[in-house]
Amino acid sequence: MEISKNEAQDYLETIRTVQQKTRRAIANGGAPFYLMIWGVVWLIGFLSNQYLSAQVAGQVWAVASAAGVIASFVKGWMMSRSIRRPGLDARVGLFWLAWLVYGFLLVWLSGSSNVTAISLMITVFAMFVYIIMGLWLWRPLAWIGVFVTAVAVAAYLLLPNYVNLIMAWIGGGALFFSGLDMRRHWR
Amino acid sequence: MSNLNSVIHQPVRLRIMAALSALPEDAQLDFVALRKMLDLTDGNLSVHLRKLEDAGYVQVEKAFVGRKPRTYLAATPEGRKAFAEHVQALQAIIQRNETNAP
User: Fold this and answer.
1) Exposed, middle or buried, A148 (CB in 10 Å: 0-12/13-18/19+)?
2) Per-residue DSSP letter, A168
3) CA separation (Å) from B18 to A56, A129, B12?
4) The model's pTM
5) Of A125, A127, A130, B38, which is least packed with CB atoms within 10 Å of its CB?
6) Interface touch B27/A84, C-beta < 8 Å
7) Residue B33's domain is classified under what CATH number?
8) Alpha-carbon distance A77 to A13, whole Å?
9) Which of A11, A16, A28 to mutate against chain B (most B CBs within 10 Å)?
């Protein structure tokens, strides 16, 4: 079978276009979306810590987190209908469910009523999971986890008065823009 | 001599293999999602999938999501290898022509 150079170029261009479209379909859901949605949740939550009373901030966190969980589950369900990864999908879902349960247990057992400390505890716990998932699934996720943990600990120790603002803009921002960058990169 | 794969070379099958090869190795793509992505009809996609399945390049798996039956597709390791070789053959044609150009 012989074809001309121009035909070969056309075929390669077709392959490139289709593969880009497929990667875009993957990028349009999954990890980038979760990072962006949780970046926004953190931004709202930590800003409420800074500017609202502890009781109201706790309520804002609860509502924002519930919205994040629901949005993540809906997106995950929609994604699994078109692209599935047998074995991995169920394990990742169960992993996050276990994280949620253990996160609540950790907060409850700590007995702390300091909203900022509780928020940071959950943040650091979430970043620990990012590091684990990053090591197994996608390495940059682990670096995001290390970066946000370092920012959280440094802000808590060195700039306690600004910790919520720092976590809102740098922590939430890191998640949001990592998601945005991942989405752009995969396109 | 060209090493183009006659099964994959057909334009629709080339696009199917391009899409499935772009997925992570453990991922499967829904039939409907692929049909929409490639802008094909059910019948057209089915016919070409059958040929790729017969060649051992594509794995077709039926599953239920809720109560609805769905068909999931994935490129087999042999399919990925054959597709990669086909792409190399296309690139070789371009290079050969560039080398021979005056």
Assistant:
1) buried
2) I
3) 52, 34, 10
4) 0.64
5) A125
6) yes
7) 1.10.10.10
8) 33
9) A11
Q: Which of B93, B96, B98, B100 to mutate to test the interface with A (most CBs of A within 10 A)?
A: B93
The amino acid sitting at A33 is F
Phi and psi angles of residue A3, each rounded to the nearest 5 degrees, phi first: -135, 160
pLDDT in tens, B4-44: 999 999 999 999 999 999 988 888 999 998 999 899 999 99
- Range(s) of the domain holding residue B18: 6-100
Share the mean pLDDT of chain B. 91
pLDDT, tens digit, 9 for 90 and up, residues A152-179: 999 999 998 898 999 899 889 988 988 8
Q: Which residues of A touch B37 (CB under 8 A)?
A: 18, 21-22, 25
| Structural domain total, chain A | 1
Domain containing residue A143: 5-185
Report CB contact under 8 Å: A21, B19: yes
pLDDT at A115: 80
pLDDT given for residue A76 in this prediction: 76
Cα–chain center distance at B58: 7
Predicted local confidence at residue A123, as pLDDT: 85
**Positions in chain A short of pLDDT 50:** none
Domain count, chain B: 1
**B1 domain residue, yes or no:** no
| Distance in Å, alpha carbon of B52 to nearest chain A alpha carbon | 17
